[in-house]
Amino acid sequence: MKDVTKRHLDPVCGKHLEAPEGRPSTEYKKRRYFFCSERCRTAFERQAERFRMNDLARAGALLTPGRVRWGIA
Asked: Is pLDDT above 50 for 1?
């Protein structure tokens, strides 16, 4: 059985990375992000805040009890 806690998700293309060691990475707002390629890392660095907000929205939608409202507040 695989340990799912050690898997990382590329925030740009959505690929699951089993072993992030040796992969391109960057730190943004005290969090380390791992990527499948330099191309994805460069795309992330161009629009890091957008990818971070998408990540927070996805986590919030998973953790919010009841209904979820999507859109701009």
From this structure: no
